[in-house]
Specification:
Chain lengths: 557, 149
Amino acid sequence: MFHDVPVAAWWVAFSALSALTLLWFRARRRVRDRERRERGLAEQLDITRERLQLALDALGAGTWHWDLHTEKVVWDARNAQLFGIDLASFRGSREHAAEGVMLEDVQAAEREAARAVAEPGTMLDCLLRLRDGERVLRLHGKVVRDDDGKATGIAGLCHDVTRAQKAQLALAESEERLRATFEQAAVGIAHLSPDGKWLRVNQKVCEIMGFEAEELMQTSFQKLTHPDDLELDLGFVGELIAGERDRYQMEKRYIHKGGYIVWGSLSVSLVRAIDGTPKYFISVIEDISERKLLEAELREAKSELEQRVLERTAELSRSNDDLAQFAYVASHDLQEPLRMVTSYLELLERRYTERFEGEAREFMDYAVDGARRMKLLIDDLLEYSRLGTRPEPHGDVDLNDALDEACANLAIGMRESGARLEVGDLPTVTGQRSRLVSLLQNILDNSIKYRSDEPPHLRVSAEPDEKGWRVHIQDNGIGVEEGHTTRIFEVFQRLHRDAEINGTGIGLASAKKIVEAHGGRIWMSSEPGAGSTVSFTLMSNAGKPSHEQHTDPSLVG
Amino acid sequence: MSSTPIQVLLVEDNPGDVRLTREALRESKVRNQLNAVNDGEEAIAFLRRSGRYGEAPRPDLILLDLNMPRKNGREVLAELKSDGDFQQIPVIVLTSSDSERDVSECYELNANSYVRKPVGLDQFFEVIAEIERYWMGVNRLPGRTSNAK
């Protein structure tokens, strides 16, 4: 309340006013008979009045007097100005004085006056809010009493406290806001002494730690910190106090009152006194236990998944190896008995053929044919199981050369079927030469086997692809129905009866295995009765094929 | 037919193959005598004329199968080729295996030839005829003044 007025000035003004009032009354009563005798007193009065005026000016205060006998109110000019009334028009009545004041405050002031009168030795002190809604005045008064102690009037000062009043309101509001922010924050906020004692904590801190605020005040953060995190935390505190950092942040474990661990994300800064000595820490603590739990679960799930993938991959790789091994051994060991069957059937045929008649001849033919197909199967199976077992270095392979070699291997079949081959310029790709020959051979062989009534017309072309090349082998064969274009690449998946076509169902499976081992993919598009196109991708060493290698006319220009 | 027949030792556990080889050699132009034993142990006994092979002739040529019980072809090969008495006798490995490893292993053990048994009868006969033509005809065998015609 006194912020804006120097206390000393108040007391000077007040004492002076009191003295003046007393002197004035006495003077008025005795002035006539004492005028001449007390000339010195008048002089003193002048000096006092002068001092009083200076003090009042310094304060910006007005003076007032209320005569309890006459009910007359006397103001000086400044007082009238403070009340917003022209002194010349002031009627000197209590009612007129109270006109511009809020009724509530008028009543409070009257009660205060009555109290001051009733309690000798006390002062009147009250606030008057003016009805203009802007200004607030403060009244200080002292009850004037006669020699018998009977109150005759009240005299005092009035000054404008609007600014102080507003400042105080604003301060209170701001404090309230800060307090609410602190108290109701969704994160824990605490002040801690430089040695770690909890000084002030908000509700959230209590919730996180499980303690009542009072209980927390009895302890320190060190006691609530998990031993494994304490060293790091104290290290940061040391750096903060030493001024090596402004703030620090860490994730740490607190020990809850219930004995279990609570994960907190902690941010700490230090407030220093004006002389620089550490005053208190401001800690913001967020409970991240749930997040930590989820993270741990996620980590666990991830590692479990990785483990499972590893196991599964190992299993698959083992079973792949086992399968390849089995196929190799089986086909290899099947050769022996097959050789016996074939050889002795042929020996029978050679030496006793004239004795075979009718059915015997027919049975013999079936047996010979079965043995022959069995041989084809075993050879193909052996070839398939060997894919990938003999590592051959990858290098640049000119597909033109590979195709020539494949065709040479297929010379008999091509000649017998009257096959015609049309070849575009083929690129150089990266791969294992013998495998790529085998790949082309398998696909061409398939086209020749599954030819239509027309002689095979085979077209081999290539076009650039994202990582290398896309090779197409198109035929005019019997084609494959749409639903079968994927199945056809599975081992032993044949679409035709033995009697019709001399295949084993391994050729395209081998082709697929070779392409995939080269990092490419293979697929078929087909139109039954019109032909099929087998396409596959292969990588090129240069990554992207160079422009000059664009050979398909449709892609140039 | 004045000269002594060429002594061929066939080490083969499969009687079917023994018979086929016998049949093939029967059609041979070269006078030969086929002696067949069932496994490596017997082959060594035959060569050393031990036990019931006391009267066994010294072979001029050995046809050796690889996969046999008791003592396999590789062991027989290793033993023969490190024995001064027998290391001169040409050994032709005759097997159904065409594995690279078997081929190189046999040559490392100083086999004189490696031939894969073909599956068909005609082809088998052809191979035996080829062996006969080269090893008993073209080639000169040690310890014989000239090969029988």
